[in-house]
């Protein structure tokens, strides 16, 4: 057998660290007062990250990611600074409402362009929101208010969230019965086996970025993607590869049909005005 190279070892360690959130040092969270201040002063800002079809390169959807602004600071904060705080202080619904109100009206403007008329919008829900009975109705109201077809909205829930309780099956079903799409986010980091997957009424799978990084030279990740492509085609669901950062990975992924790509290499998450500029610059003629 060949000796392991330092590079291979480094990749292994990086992957291990990425998969174990305990080992990743998080920046300090903001205070509860700061969070309340941001919520009360309209400082929740939707960022949008495009998803493109792997083969055509067309933008086919967007994921909305939450940011908040503190006081007059220019730098916006990402969810790792406030999400847990919002979840543990029952402020997550208010945060999501603030976010969706803006995101839906901005996305409606994007959809006025024929090129994005059929695009989808993906939003993230926290575990408590998935079990809350009010959320399908709330989401429906956002769609009705903005005259948006519910089928164009996809709710992203993490893999562990989807399986943590027996009742999750019915929560996912409730969303699906309301026509919303449901995606399993960060797929590959939890414990779902493929039989369980086939039993969940989901409409999309998002392969976690730890499998996407370096996929061009990783036979195991390649096999996983190929199997998922097979399964998703058979189940009639969408497949997304997230965390595309490297041109060699992009070149490898571009040959896959029924695959959406999302990642910094394609486009970083952007606020509405910047996204509009990016879409104009990248529009195919
Ligand atoms: P996620 O849902 O898995 O979203 C993807 C995260 O990866 C985002 O981080 C995004 O900015 C980042 N990302 C996208 N492309 C790349 C790439 O090529 N490389 C790398 N390294 N990262 C990439 P972000 O915006 O900081 O969000 C982190 C997490 O916070 C999200 O992970 C999601 O779980 C949660 N989150 C974000 N917005 C919301 C929200 O409105 N509600 C809830 N409940 N959770 C949210
Ligand atoms: Ca997500
Ligand atoms: Ca993810």
Automatic annotation (TrEMBL):
Keywords for the protein's UniProt record, in alphabetical order: Phosphoprotein
Q: Does the keyword Magnesium apply?
A: no
- Ranges where the EAL domain occurs: 28-283
Q: Which domain of life is it from?
A: Bacteria
The keyword Phosphoprotein belongs to this UniProt entry's keyword annotation? yes
Report the protein name in the record. Answer: EAL domain-containing response regulator
What's the source species for this entry? Shewanella eurypsychrophilus
**Organism taxonomic ancestry:** Bacteria, Pseudomonadati, Pseudomonadota, Gammaproteobacteria, Alteromonadales
The range of the complete sequence contained here reads 110 to 394 of 427
């Amino acid at each position: 057998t060949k000796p392991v190279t330092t590079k291979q070892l480094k990749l292994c360690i990086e992957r291990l660290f990425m998969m174990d959130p305990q080992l990743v040092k998080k920046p300090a969270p903001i205070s509860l007062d700061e969070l309340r201040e941001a919520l009360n002063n309209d400082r929740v800002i939707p960022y949008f990250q495009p998803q493109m079809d792997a083969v055509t390169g067309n933008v086919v959807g967007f994921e909305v990611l939450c940011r908040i602004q503190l006081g007059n600071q220019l730098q916006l904060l990402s969810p790792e600074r406030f999400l847990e705080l919002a979840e543990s202080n029952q402020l997550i619904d208010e945060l999501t409402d603030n976010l969706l109100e803006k995101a839906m009206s901005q996305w409606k403007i994007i959809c006025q362009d024929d090129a994005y008329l059929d695009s989808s919008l993906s939003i993230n829900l926290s575990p408590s929101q998935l079990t809350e009975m009010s959320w399908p109705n709330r989401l429906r109201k956002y769609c009705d208010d903005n005259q948006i077809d519910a089928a164009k909205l996809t709710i992203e829930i993490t893999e562990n969230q989807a399986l943590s309780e027996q009742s999750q099956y019915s929560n996912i079903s409730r969303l699906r019965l309301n026509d919303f799409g449901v995606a399993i986010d960060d797929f590959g980091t939890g414990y779902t086996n493929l039989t369980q997957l086939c039993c969940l009424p989901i409409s999309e799978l998002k392969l976690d970025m730890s499998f996407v990084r370096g996929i061009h030279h990783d036979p195991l990740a390649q096999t996983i993607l190929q199997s998922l492509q097979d399964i998703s085609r058979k189940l009639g669901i969408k497949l997304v590869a997230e965390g595309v950062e490297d041109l060699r990975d992009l070149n490898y992924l571009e040959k896959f049909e029924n695959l959406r790509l999302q990642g910094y290499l394609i486009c970083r998450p952007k606020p509405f005005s910047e996204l509009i500029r990016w879409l104009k610059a990248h529009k195919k003629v």
